[in-house]
Each structure stands twice: as structure tokens, then as C-alpha cells.
Amino acid sequence: MPGLYFHIPFCHRACTYCDFHFSTSKQRDPVLDAMELELLRRSREVGDAPMGTIYFGGGTPSLLAPERIAAFIQQARDLFRVERDAEITLEANPDDITAERLHAWQAAGITRMSLGTQSFHDERLAWMGRAHDARQAMESIGLIARAGFATWTIDLIYGLPGMTLAEWDEQLTIALDHGMPHLSAYCLTVEARTALAHQVKTGVTHMPEDEDQSAQFDRLMERMDRAGLDHYEISNFGRPGHYSRHNTSYWEGVPYIGVGPSAHSFNGVVRRWNVANNAVYTKALRDGSAYWESETLTPVQRTNERLMTGLRTARGVDIAKLEVDALSINSSAVQRHVSNGSMSIQDGRLVLSRAGRHFADRIASDLFVTDDDR
Ligand code: SF4
User: Fold this and answer.
1) Which of 94, 102, 160, 300 makes a 20 to 30 Å CA pair with 60?
2) Atom of ligand 1 nearest to the CA of 17
3) For the segment 271-289, what is each residue's pLDDT rounded down to a tens digit?
4) Which atom of ligand 1 sits closest to the CA of residue 130?
5) Which domain holds residue 337?
6) pLDDT of 202-219, one tens digit each?
7) Any residues with Cβ below 6 Å from ligand 1, and which?
């Protein structure tokens, strides 16, 4: 069942570590109008297939007026066969949350809120360059929990410079005390061309050792396990019935349409990505010129993508669906990872153990195939 992704390319301010595409401009309407045009022009791509999920990501979708979100959802319903029980997610930041706005988003059709909490620590939030403080983080969770959405989730970041295991434990305790049904927890990484990359390069900030980040990942897995949240993807934990349907489809290679500057799309064979520039995107849609690039994935590329995304999930990789026999080609690597307890083969699926999850990307790359292998 295909999905629909809207990339809302605006933020209140730039976070220290962020390399997503966004602008802090207040000139938003021309870009949003162009997105409506893009959706209209691409409406035939899905055909009559029912649409199971819609996801508003960014950027910061919650800084738009709720009426804009409602208009996008209505347009999607007019153009596609959106399922009655479709999961419709809105990413939101704590400083945008009020009871009135939650009510308006709900009335617009949002069923799942994804809150960019990141930390419950004022100094950490200031260092990250976030627009909210710890009090807003906690109050917004309370408002969301009481608002009656079908489900909701929060994001937290660990592996921060100087973060101790005790500090991370405290963050997890605060999160669990708020009763969240789902958590996305990301280890801080240094992305090129970010303020953080500059700080690290100039010695202003020192990133933690791998062992410290690894110990925090272990603690995260232990705490979520004890609290009854399933570890269904490397960075995602959810109670049964509260997994992200949109992201699960993405990890399983289900087609999706991505609308907006920098948004990616995939139809099962061709991957395409829109230009990551608001002005160029808007002008191209007005002029009717190209605003995207694309590539047709080869069987080798599709096999490697399945390994990369599948190994990150608890369900693992369906071996029968690999178009190239990566396991035979890399039999010694498979044997090594199975015998050292990082990986197992269960019911025709390749699944990582808890120990193996620390090295998911490295193990996947050990199993990659090349054109020469065929
Ligand atoms: S709010 Fe999100 S998208 Fe915007 S700058 Fe911060 S991390 Fe990036």
C-alpha cells in the first residue's frame, strides 16, 4: 500500500547538528502552493492503489497554520484513495504545541503526533540550538497524551558530548514516566556542513568515544525492553499496535511519493529526488520544467538496499526476496557473523541479535554485492 510524504522545508531556526533541507524564511506560501501543484501533477503515479499512510516531515511541519495541513490532507483525499483508517503523522516541535492547535490538527485528520523532544535538559537543548526548553518539552507531551490521538511518539538524542550513562538514564526515566507508546532514539552524528561539524573541526566540541555511545545504546535497549516497548528497528521502539506504519512500509521497500523540496520518491524500481532548494523548486513548478533527478535501481542496488534497511529491523531480511544471492556470494562473511552471535537465520530471514545491532551498517556492508558478483 503506497505512502505519501510531504517535506515542509521551514524551521524557526537552525539546529546545531542538522543537515536536513530547510529554510528559516517567512516567505512560505509560494513553496507550499508549488507543493500543491506537484501533488496534482503526480496524482496518476499511484493509480487506484489504496494509500495507507501520509507523513508530514521536515523541516518543521508544525509551524504551518493547521489550515494548510488540512488543505494538503483534503487534496490527498481528493486525488487518491486514502484508506479510512490511514495513519497520518505530523512532526511537531514542543514550542508549537497548544491544546487549540492539537485540536485543529486532529480535526484536519492527523492520527499520529511525532514530537521533536530531543532532550529534557535545558542546557542540552540550548547547545543543540533548539527553540524549546525542558518545561515546554514536558508540557507538550502531557498535552499530546491527553489529546486523544490514535498514537504518538517522541524523539530523543543520545551520544551527546560529555553525556554520562546516568544522564541518559535520567532522560529515559523522564520519557517513560510520561507513558509514551513509541520512542525514536538517535545517536548524535556529525554531518558535513553543520555548525557541529565546524565545532568539532575547530576543537570547540569533542565527540564522545564509541564505547560511551555504545553503552548508552545498550542501556536504551535494556530500559525499553523492561518497559515493554519492542525494539522493531535500530532507532525505534514501540508498544504493540503503535509501530510507525509509514516508516515500516519504507523499510520494507513499499512505494511512496515524496512531495516538496528535497523529498525522495520510490516506485519499487526508480528512485527520484527533488531539488533541495526552495526557490529553484518553486520556479520549476511554475515554469513546468524539471525539478527532480532520478535513477533506475539495478538488481544489485535493490539487493543492497534490502540488506541495509532490512537488517536494521527486528523482522530482518526476507532472503527469498533478494534478487541477487548475496548470502552465497558472501558465505564466509555470513558464517563469521552467525558464528560470533551477531546474526542468525530464522524462518528464511536474516536477523541481527542484540549484539549485532551495534554494527548493523557494518554487517550489511559485509553482505553487499557488486556488479562483478553476477
Ligand atoms: S527543527 Fe528539525 S529540521 Fe529544523 S533545524 Fe532543527 S533538527 Fe533540523
Assistant:
1) 160
2) 7
3) 999 999 999 999 999 999 9
4) 6
5) 299-373
6) 999 999 999 999 999 999
7) 11, 14-15, 18, 20, 22, 58-60, 93, 116
